[in-house]
Amino acid sequence: MSRIPFHHRFLSLLFLLALMLGLAGCSGDESGAANEQLSEPPATSSGQVTSVRVVAVGPRALQAWVYSQGTARSRQREFLTFTQQGTVTHVDENLRVGSPVKAGQLIAHQAPDRVDAELQAARAGVAEAEANLALAQVTQQRYETLIEQRSASQQELDQAVVQVEQAKAIRDSSKAQLAQAQLTVNESRLVSPIDGVLARLNIEKGRYFMPSVVQTNTEQNALRTVPALVIDPHRFEVRVDLPSYNYRQIDVGARAVIGDTPPLDGQDLDPLQITGHVVGRVHAVSPSLDPETRTFEVLVHTERENPGLQDGEFVAVWIAEPEMGEVLAVPQEALRFRNDQSFVHVVNPQTNRVTERRVELGQYAGAYRAVTQGLEQGELVVTDGRAALNDGQQVRILDGSPARP
Fold first, then answer.
1. 220-229 pLDDT per residue, tens
2. Would the N or C end of the chain have less CB density within 10 A of its end CB?
3. Domain boundaries of the chain, sorted by first residue
4. For 272-306, what is each residue's pLDDT tens digit?
5. What are the phi and psi torsion angles at 372 (to 5°)?
6. Rounded to an integer, what distance in angstroms lies between the CA atom of residue 255 and that of residue 251?
7. C-alpha distance from residue 35 to each of 22, 29, 241, 332 (Å)
8. Are 271 and 320 in contact (CB under 8 A)?
9. Measured over all CA atoms, what is the biggest interatomic distance in the chain, rounded to whole angstroms?
10. Cα 320 from chain centroid?
11. How many angstroms separate the CA atoms of 62 and 64, rounded?
């Protein structure tokens, strides 16, 4: 057996010793790092203080509004037209679209000479018939006297009675002819039946008019082809269509607001305090649905004179649902939603820490939402700063005192 030289054994020992020292150093570094990590305190969000604004939960009367759109129309609109063809011989030169007119005021007429002559002839025929009737009645009375004196026969009296009846028939026929002549005159004249405003004037003097040009199949065609339109500018109505699920939420007599924006904060505010709003009431609610759109019609009437609407104007309408009594409510900005569930952050005024609490919501009304479960009156909920909050986090209330809703 060969012997290992001494210097080789010495080098091997030195190598083993260095290897053992290196392993011991690595083990000490890992142990120190582990001890250092365990000694560092864990970071928690509860150590951060977030400034928030709060509001106290309290009872509130909420007013919900149903929104729709419709066209405002004058409640009294008179379409005036000629029923016979003919030349328009007169148009009041002082009238323009938008001019006020009085009931009975002449706007235009056709060929008055011919119809006036027919009217005069009919009046003369009535006068003649009444004269003949009066003569026949006098003759009948004379024969009745002669019969009593035995100076006339019964046959002569009977003939006198027949003549009276014939005269009455002729008189009635003459009156019918007079009424027809008067109707012809009326139909050849455009006369305003109401006090109002001239809204349309589609004829000119000298133009030949034919009734067949008037198209009434649509509102637009009627306004374009009718000779004249007179409206009452003081009373308007709006017809709106609502989805079927709103049917039990709308009552006749319910308050309505016509304007671009709804009443604020879900309150039953006086819309007259808001510029550009018109007050109205639900006048009628249709009990049947449109089979195609599955909507029902609601008719809203304006309440006050001269509401400032324009006939044919497209407007927004807000109709009040039955008012909810005093119910717990929170502002919309206090709510958070996650996985189709609603939450609020409730502040404990003793510890100034928040608790995330699930709530059940009721009806939406303006800027507020009714809460049916999860909150009690007087509790403080966060309205501003809630986005940076976690459950159990400490907060600083910015408001001096919580505001009532």
1. 999 999 999 9
2. N
3. 50-60+325-397, 65-74+233-320, 82-110+189-231, 112-187
4. 445 567 889 999 999 999 999 999 999 999 988 87
5. -95, -30
6. 9
7. 20, 10, 74, 49
8. no
9. 196
10. 10
11. 6
